[in-house]
Each structure stands twice: as structure tokens, then as C-alpha cells.
Amino acid sequence: MKTNIQITEEDENKTGEQQNETADPASNAEKLNCDENCEEEKTETDPLTEVKTQLTEIQDKYLRQIAEFDNYRKRTMKEKADLILNGAERTVTAILPVLDDFERALQNMEKAEDIQAVKEGVELIFQKFTKIMEGLGVKKIETQNEDFNTDVHEAIAQIPAPTDELKGKVMDCVQTGYMLNDKVIRHAKVAVGL
């Protein structure tokens, strides 16, 4: 007796796949690895794209810093201009009361009969003015019996010294010198002993 075995196409495909799986297990593993690697490659970014992104970020930071510096420069220039225009405001405000005192003194001088009282009033105004100037950082340069110092003194004359101890010292002050916060704003004009 003969039996007919009929093989359908479906059976052939299954049989072929089974043979492929059993025949070469290494190729099946490669196929699985390839699928995983292909997915990883798809998720990894292209190095060129990554560099372009970094370059864009760096350019953006650079432009922002340039803009910040430009704003800083403009702001400081404006502040300097304001200081130049209004820098004397503190000084003028401090001196205005002295100006008021001088106006009152001038008005009273016309009516005053006592010269000593007028003199005392002017001396008080002078003392007030000196105090205000010291409060603003202005100090008088001392010259009386001081050694001649070119940093603070300007010699306009040389006169014979009466004693040897006075040689090289300031003998007379023609014009008072002043310092503002330890910086000479006007040298004292003096006569120096020979």
C-alpha cells in the first residue's frame, strides 16, 4: 500500500523556517543583533548634527554676552555723563548756606555801626565755610615752618634764611594750597629759605 503525502505550501514554509533556525543559529543571533544595533543607530544622533547644535548654542551665548556688554557700556557712559553734569550738586548744596550768610552780612554791613561786630560775623562765616569744605574732603596744606616739598609746594621765590635751621624750609606762603581726599588740587605757592 502506498500512502500519498501531500505537502502544502504552508507546510513547506514552516519547514523551511525550521530548517533555517536549526541550520544556522549564529545567523539568527546576528539577525537579532542587527535589529538591536539598527535601532540604536537610529536613536543615536549624527555627530555633524550634534556639532551644529553646539555651535548654535555657543553663537547664541556669544551674541547674548555681546549684547550684555554693550548695555553695560551704554549704562556706564550714561552714569558718567550724569556724574559730570550733577557731580557738583553735593558741593553746591553744601556751600549755599554760606552764600546766604554772606548776603545777610552784606545787608547788615550797610546798617552796622560797630566794625568789630561785622568783623566777627565775617570770621564766623569763614569758619563755617572752612568746616563745610573739610566735610567735603578739602584740607588746607600746612606751610608754616614746614620743609619744602615739591609734592605739595610750589616755590615762587627764594629768600635768605635768617638762621641755618630755616634753610630749605618754607619762609612765607603767598597762596594757600589745598588737597581733596589726599590729592593735591592746588599747590601752595611759597617762598623758600636759602
Fold topology:
Layout: H1 9-23, H2 25-43, H3 47-86, H4 89-111, H5 115-135, E1 138-140, E2 153-159, E3 170-175, E4 178-180, E5 183-186, E6 188-193
Parallel strand pairs: 2-6
Antiparallel strand pairs: 1-4, 3-6, 4-5
What does this structure look like?
Among the domains are: 70-136, Hemagglutinin Ectodomain, Chain B; 138-194, Head domain of nucleotide exchange factor GrpE (Nucleotide Exchange Factor Grpe, Chain A, domain 2, Roll). It contains five helices and six strands, in the order H-H-H-H-H-E-E-E-E-E-E. It has helices at 9-23, 25-43, 47-86, 89-111, 115-135; strands at residues 138-140, 153-159, 170-175, 178-180, 183-186, 188-193. Helix 4 runs antiparallel to helix 5. The longest helix is centred in the middle third of the chain and has 40 residues, at 47-86.
Quickly describe the structure:
With 194 residues, the protein is α+β, with helices and mostly antiparallel strands.
Distance between the termini: 155 Å
Q: Outline, from the CA principal axes? A: elongated
Number of strands: 6
The rounded Rg comes to: 49 Å
User: Which class of secondary structure composition applies to the elements?
Assistant: alpha+beta
Q: Could you state the CATH homologous superfamily of the domain at 70-136?
A: GrpE nucleotide exchange factor, coiled-coil domain
Could you name the CATH class of the domain at 70-136?
Alpha Beta
Give the low-pLDDT segments: none
Helix content: 55-70%
Instruction: Report the β-strand fraction as a percent range.
Output: 5-15%
Strand order of the largest sheet: 1-4-5
The run of helices and strands is HHHHHEEEEEE
Tally of alpha and pi helices: 5
Largest sheet, described in full? 3 strands, antiparallel
CATH topology of the domain at 70-136: Hemagglutinin Ectodomain, Chain B
Mean pLDDT: 82
CATH architecture of the domain at 70-136: Alpha-Beta Complex
